[in-house]
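## retry 2 of 3
previous attempt timed out at serialization; input unchanged, resubmitting
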Amino acid sequence: MRRDVSLGPVGLLIWCGTLLGVGFPLSKVSFAAGVSPMMWALLVSMGASLSLLPVLGVRGLLRLPRGRMLRYVAISGLVSFAGINLMIFALVPKLGAGQVGMMFALSPVATLALSVLFGMKAPGRLGLWGIGLGLIGALLVAFGRGGVEGSLIWSFVGLSIPIILAAGNVYRTLDWPEGAHPMALAFWSHGVAIVALVAAMLWQGDGVPLATLSAVPRAAGVQVIAAALTFPAYFRLQKLGGPVLLSQIGYVAAAVGLVVGLALLGERYALVSWIGVVVTVIGIFLSVCSKNGHSKSIELPMPLGRKTRARIGVACKSFEKPRLNRDKVL
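## retry succeeded, writing output
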């Protein structure tokens, strides 16, 4: 559980993205076996919370959230975990693991737009190229898939995934409670998600169908382990890397979901999809180089024109002072 301590932002990015990518095909396997998307989302949050409980107890960090921290974990749990996981797992059977993974991968562009809107620091030239190429690769895979059942309507529904993810990414950075430990935030956020999902299932009148997990014991076990290893590192990445870098786990997760879907679930993709994967990998590489300070050795023109960059600069300055004043009030 403490392995993330020795990892920098880039290592955490690859770690979290890989583990999240494994969840896409696992959710498709669970749905085929009769496990509801809501139950699978509950399993993810249970795996994260139960694994963190003893660690927080030993470290003396198991305190009830109050004030700003309570608001933070409530919003994070409902939007970023219960809501988005339910949506992702419900769409995987409709669109395929690779398709949903690519929708997930569109979140860096949406996160960048919201970050600029709220006056947060935008990435440099190389980082913008990385995000742009990642977007192009994601679109190539999303619209070039072959042999996976789905409809255009569900594809448009899936486009709301990156918007919700981006809103959560930016919010968790702007409203991060001062002095809060990443593991404590992960535990209580998933705790809120568990309460919300259980309440929704009870409201439907079907109870909590834990017995359905017996149909996919191996997949359920892998999902629990993946969730347990993901979210302590996820919140640490949020704190160290900021929302834009955090959002790029979508690129890693999408590529992993595509490969696992092909290898284990028999999903088939057209050539243009694999070209998209290559472009996405190049985008991730440029983003990593930008974060590691290698941008000077890779000279690329600015992907945005001078007028566009000027507008972004004006937007950042206009939103910076209101945001600072709001932070003082909070």
